[in-house]
Amino acid sequence: MKIIIKDTAAEASAAVTEILLQQIAEKPASVLGLPTGGTPLAVYARLREEFAKGRGSYGSITTFNVDEYIGLSLHDPASYARYMRENLFEHVNVKASRTNIPDGSASDPDAEAKRYEGLIAACGGIDLMLLGLGRNAHIGFNEPGSLHHSRTRRVALTESTLEANSAYFASGAVQPTHAITMGIGTILQCRRIVVLATGPEKAEAVASSVDGVVSEAVPGSALSHHPDTTIVLDKAAARNLGIAQPMELRA
Ligand code: GLP
Q1: How many angstroms is it from 132 CA to the middle of ligand 1?
Q2: Of all residues in the chain, what percent are helix, strand and coil, respectively (each to 5)?
Q3: CA nearest 221: which of 135, 138, 131, 132?
Q4: Please, what is the average pLDDT of the chain?
Q5: Could you count the other beta carbons within 10 Å of the beta carbon of residue 159?
Q6: Is the CB of 176 under 6 A from ligand 1?
Q7: pLDDT tens string 121-161
């Protein structure tokens, strides 16, 4: 696992933006896995800015979002489908038909999860998966206890995740308690994984994922099974890491 620590969240986001731009420059038909949440907003803003300046071509890429709430339509203000359109897809030359997000309004979420897993395989798998990290070390919506070989499926969200994400729902809006998420096993099959975590509220999740025991209690710890994972942090998110991390890994 490669660890990159930058002074600020802005610098960490810039580093991740460069990784993504390099990926699509080297392989224009890349299949990207994408996250939502507050953390990647600065990455998407930078990608939009760079595209407006003429940098980055998305015409041949395919995207798969890691998760979506069950019960929200494509147009719901809190849906990840809408988040992706507003924060990235509508601003770059990606083909809408090649952007994939689990359908949170599907009448049979289990069948939808199976369809989504099959679609990822049919596209030849994901070249680069960008992930955030939940405060309880969840990846996608794989909450503590998720099996490391789990596949795309319907999951129940924990109290701590519901509380952390309540900020993204307007007052009075119904917050879903379930989601469809790529499984940890699905994520581990991606050829390359990049995790972005910033801010002091992620320090514990980062330390338990990177320095802790590999266990189903800590979804992020599953990433140590993967041969090509890079974790990009700001100093605040890295502050609980042990001195066991070799300094040369800190860029
Ligand atoms: C959310 C998303 C995850 C995201 C994580 C961190 O619940 N489902 O995909 O990576 O939690 O979110 P944030 O960046 O807002 O802290």
Answers
A1: 6
A2: 40, 20, 45
A3: 138
A4: 95
A5: 9
A6: no
A7: 999 999 999 999 999 999 999 999 999 999 999 999 999 99
Q: 130 CB contacts (<8 Å, ≥6 apart)?
A: 16, 20, 32, 33, 34, 35, 40, 43, 194, 195, 196
Question: Active-site positions?
Answer: 67, 136, 138, 143
Q: How many whole angstroms from its chain centre is CA 103? A: 17
Instruction: Examine residue 216 and state whether it is found in any structural domain, yes or no.
Output: yes
Q: Is 66 in the pocket of ligand 1 (CB under 6 A)?
A: yes
pLDDT score recorded for residue 243:
56
- Answer yes or no: is the C-beta of 62 below 6 A from any ligand 1 atom: no
Residue among 225, 233, 234 at smallest CA distance from 188: 225
Q: Which range marks the domain in which residue 99 is found? A: 10-231
Classify residue 243: in a domain, yes or no.
no
Residue 250 lies in a domain: no
Question: Which CATH number does the domain housing residue 181 bear?
Answer: 3.40.50.1360
Q: What is the domain count for the chain?
A: 1
Residue 242, domain member (yes or no): no
pLDDT tens readout for residues 118-127: 999 999 999 9
State which ligand 1 atom lies nearest to the alpha carbon of 131.
Answer: 10
Q: How many helices (H) and strands (E) does the chain have?
A: 8, 10
